[in-house]
Amino acid sequence: MIEDERKLLKRYGIRPRKKLGQNFLIDNRAFEKILETSELTKNDLVIEIGAGTGSLTERIAPLAAKVIAIEIDERLSPLLAERLAQFDNIRIVRGDILKIGLKGLLELPGVKPSTFSAVKVVANLPYYIITPIIINLLQQKPAPNLLVILVQKELAERITAHPGTKSYGAFSIACQYYCIAELICKVEKKAFFPQPQVDSALLKLVVMPHPLVKTRDKDFFFSIVRASFSKRRKTIENALLYHLNWRREQLRERLTKVRIDFRRRPETLSATEFARLADILQES
Can you say which residues are annotated as belonging to the binding site? Predict the structure, then answer.
């Protein structure tokens, strides 16, 4: 498999670019796990971000109603056109997902999201822009129903982390605010060409129709979360004193009202506790 990918790239005179996060998946077991986790049907619209050499795209196409594969590297356009020519349900788009956006893809001529039962993002995401891509997708209205994505193992652990663990932080809460996150399996670095420096993991993010955390003001809630974790080694009280222009006694009173011990560290608070805290801090 690896030789096939190397020969294909060589034939088109393409060398993987590190700055574009080009580590192409070459492991059949990983491909199978992605497809199994995606649970694709003939009624699904699939968005693939970073089509690369089309090795995942050609596996998705027979299982889905339509595939929109976006690729930023124009050098790969003729390769993708040749490799995927046999499929009439693939639309190849050259561009940057962060500039085009999910909304832009869903508004392409001939694409009618209402005719599909689900919109799913299935992708081996480029390492260098994974975080903004995930947040951008989760904040879309409407958002995709499901994300099945390959990311760095460390990032996958952060996204799925629970309170009180080393990996838990502001990004964990940001993702879990919108979706139910599950780390499906580890994917070793040897499953890619060229090999990255770290292992990856397959993530399944089921996006919920409504946020999983109830709070009065989403922006204020996230500002409190970010402020708390910016002083991770401090207590929640001391961390927020850096952020709020309040007296210690005043802040401690609000913490007590929502039953949060002022001596706790931010990483021990659940998203629900942060929501209660943010709401009471907004009260006059």
Answer: 23, 25, 50, 71, 96, 124
First to last CA, the chain: 63
Class of domain 218-281: mainly alpha
Q: Length of the chain, please?
A: 284
Rg over alpha carbons for the chain, rounded to the nearest Å, is: 21
Look at residue 6 and tell me whether its pLDDT is greater than 90. no
SS3 184: strand
Q: Is the model's pTM score more than 0.85?
A: yes
Determine the pLDDT at residue 231: 86
SS (H, E, C) 210-228: CCCCCCCCHHHHHHHHHHH
Q: What does the alpha-carbon distance between residue 97 and residue 21 come to, in Å, rounded to a whole number?
A: 14
Q: What are phi and psi of 136, to 5 degrees?
A: -60, -45
Q: What is the mean pLDDT of residues 69-84?
A: 96
How would CATH label the architecture of 2-207?
A: 3-Layer(aba) Sandwich (3.40)
Each domain of the chain, given as residue ranges in start order, spans 2-207, 218-281
pLDDT band at 1 (very low <50, low <70, confident <90, very high): very low
Residue ranges in the chain assigned as alpha helix (H): 2-11, 28-38, 57-60, 77-83, 97-106, 130-138, 153-159, 170-176, 218-229, 236-243, 248-257, 271-281
Residue 209 structure tokens = 């129709």
Residue 242 to residue 66: CA distance in whole angstroms = 50
Annotated binding-site residues for S-adenosyl-L-methionine read 23, 25, 50, 71, 96, 124
Closest CA to 137 of 80, 203, 195: 203
Closest C-alpha among 172, 108, 161 to residue 134: 172
